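Allow me, if you will, to draw on your knowledge of protein folds for a short while. I have a record of one protein: its chain in single-letter code and its fold written as discrete structure tokens. Could you please explain, in whatever detail you think fit, how the structure tokens follow from the sequence? The record follows directly beneath this note:
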Amino acid sequence: MILESLILLAAATQSVAPAASDFAQYETRANTFESNRQMDPSLAASPSGTMLSAWSSRRQEQGTFGVFAQLIDPLGRHIGTEFHVNQYMVGHQMRPAVAFSDDDNAWVIWNSIGQDGDGGGIFARRFGWQERDVDEKTERFFGPLGDEFLVNSTTKGEQSNATLAIHASGEVLITWAGEQAESGQRRIFARRFSIDGTPLGTDMAVSDYQGVDQERLPSIGTLSDGFVVAWAQHTSEGWPQGIRGRKLPLMGVTEMSASFEICGTDFDMPVEPCLDTNGKDTFAVAWMATQDNADYLPYVRRFHADGTPAGERQQVDAGGEGFANGALVAMAPDGRFFVSYNANGLKEIADQPAHRPKRPAEVRGQRFAANGALEG
């Protein structure tokens, strides 16, 4: 899982780099178990620079997918061994997302099939540094801070595409795509939690837009006064219908602003939004889009906290052969940001019988200044 993890790892290291020309690049393997498939990686960095990578691993627990994770230091070295995140092991547990709070504790959320009684549900578990006595010595270790728990209060239908952010105030917001009770259409929902995992209310609808049939793939970040969420819109047949966003205030603020357009249908078939913020008053959204029915290309645009554009959309072009996908953005506290994507070459026939063809791929990326100017 070197390549897939590197996408997020590269973006994370750039976001904390002191200057555009002064940064280090490390490539490291996150997983230790290598049999079958490890996929759907997610990565977050703590305030101290420690990183936690989580992923889906097939046939490592009971023959199905489970969620596993590895703690990594700022130089890419493993801290301890990889560990099992989920406790419930019936069916598939997969597609994790990770976030750190300011106290260096981590949340991992994932999709679990059948565990909530109807389709897929969203589950979470908290991890952090603790102490224990070993051979008359006190030892620090990173481990679970309790059992896993159900995130979504509405269990009917399929809940998926979960992501989360933790505000400096300690409020946690988890978002996902779920089925609207009245119509069965897929909409973006969210639920608030305190930093210790206590629910702060029930599920709430994020979207206020009624012009499309389906909403997918939410992406979330924090601002000084709350959160901002971006998501993709599609027709019932799956055709892309633009990308929208909305600010969500902290708990106790009842007034919510209207959603806003990030990329409209005038731009050909935008998909797969990824959002990150400077934690205060600026955010950037990256996505994939095609022009004239040609290959998909990565794009990015900056926004002010109220959702108004801070610049024009920009194509990201760091080269690479073949087709591009998987655009991701990471933003530093000073507003600089980094966009990465996969460059996928043509399939190569395997040199041994009964082996699958190989597809050469690499991670490419570009750095941008806080004003949107290209830095590399």
Summary: The longest helix spans residues 2-15.
